[in-house]
Amino acid sequence: MRRLVLLAPAVVLLAGCGSTIVTGTAAPSPQSASTAAGAGNGLPPDPEPGATEDCPYLGSEFVAESNGQHVSKVRVSADQPHPACFFYRPDGKIQLTVRVYVGDAKTATALVNKAAPLDSSNPASDPSGWKGGYLSSDDGAVYAVAKGSTAVIASTNQKQSVKARTVVKKAIAALKL
Predict the structure, then answer these.
(1) Spatial contact of 41 and 158, defined as CB atoms under 8 Å apart
(2) Which of 63, 79, 89, 139 has a CA-to-CA distance to 55 between 20 and 30 Å?
(3) Does domain 33-175 have CATH number 3.40.50.2300?
């Protein structure tokens, strides 16, 4: 195991029962496309792009500058209070997505581990106090971290994980998480 995520005294990979608030998701990372919607793994389903409107915690200009591509459209999921944000490039394809989950620590950790699996990702600890992982592939990169009961995950079509990390840090700062 290349990294160890310590977020709560008893970190478990699958979510338990109980009341949770699910807020947004990044588009499935290349590694999770076959497990879309959390089928059979006890995780909240991956939200879908919905209304065309501004992301409440990330501006299009910031995303364009950070990801290196023009943003032609932004769609958000129906999840509240933190919808997932889907940023599109001019050809109509998604270039970057951001998921924010607020609920319980077990689910937050499981979502991070789904996006950046323990056995294939590098450890991530930025911003300070947040733990998770990042990885790059031919299809793009993902940066996923959790702190307590909150997870923030960004997936980009760019191979440089620093772009996803920059977006995650901005989302965390904007949400005051």
Answers:
(1) no
(2) 139
(3) no
Count of CA atoms in the C-beta half-sphere (13 A) of 30: 17
DSSP letters, 48-63, are: ---SB---SSS-HHHH
Name the nearest CA neighbour of 108 among 12, 1, 4: 12
User: Splitting the chain (177 residues) into consecutive groups of 10 residues, what average pLDDT does each group show?
Assistant: 37 34 38 41 89 96 97 96 96 97 96 94 96 95 97 97 97 91
User: Whole-angstrom distance between the N-terminal and C-terminal Cα of the chain?
Assistant: 28
User: What ranges do the domains of the chain cover?
Assistant: 33-175
Neighbours of 9 (CB within 10 A): 6
Tell me how far apart the alpha carbons of residues 139 and 29 are, in angstroms, rounded to a whole number. Answer: 9
Burial class (CB within 10 angstroms; exposed 0-12, middle 13-18, buried 19+) of 148: middle
Residue 64 token pair: 């364009």
